[in-house]
Amino acid sequence: MRFAGIYPTLGIALLAWLGAQEASAGIFGPKKMAPASQYLRKQEPPKINKSLEPQINAENSHLIVSLGRQRAFLMVGEEVYIDTPISSGKHAGMTPQGRFSVLEKDPDHRSNIYGDFVDARGRTVRAGVSLKVDAAPSGTHYQGAPMRWFMRLTDGGVGMHIGILPGYAASHGCVRLPAEIAKLIYDKVKVGTPVTIEP
Length: 199
Fold this sequence. Notes:
The protein is about 15% helix and about 35% strand. The chain is an alpha+beta fold. A 6-stranded mixed sheet has the order 1-4-3-2-11-5, with no helix packed on it. The longest helix is centred in the N-terminal third of the chain and has 20 residues, at about 5-25. It is elongated, with a radius of gyration of 25 Å. Residues about 20-30 have low confidence and may be disordered.
């Protein structure tokens, strides 16, 4: 008779578990999907220290990129002028770590690897292609993805430019910047400006 007191408890627990399973499987109706934004890690918006505006210029600025924090900092000396979210390479090593410098500045750069295949009228036939793996369909040509306010950091094509920031590392290696920040940084650096990319 000592099990008599256990069975009701087990029964209640079993019913509760089954109810949870049915609800999660949508047995009692379609399960409402959470918005995608709920799954993205929210990044703090950019911050600009306006008090440093008179001091910072292309001669005294330098950049620090933190891959772990997904932030970039435009510095004058040891002070932060711009603190901005970024999106770096989606796999470890795609965005190299170490000391670099700005090798090239191009306000209207286009990728020579990633982009779209378009027809003679400029209509996209295949989007999001890589010349490393994709072949152009007949009658199309390659059009590189826009990389506005591009600042090249490596001979292999890694740089900083305007891009989509989904809230996590998602690029092919470049450091993506918010549209409202990219030109501000572009205007405050020069070819030769030091850039440190940290883990």
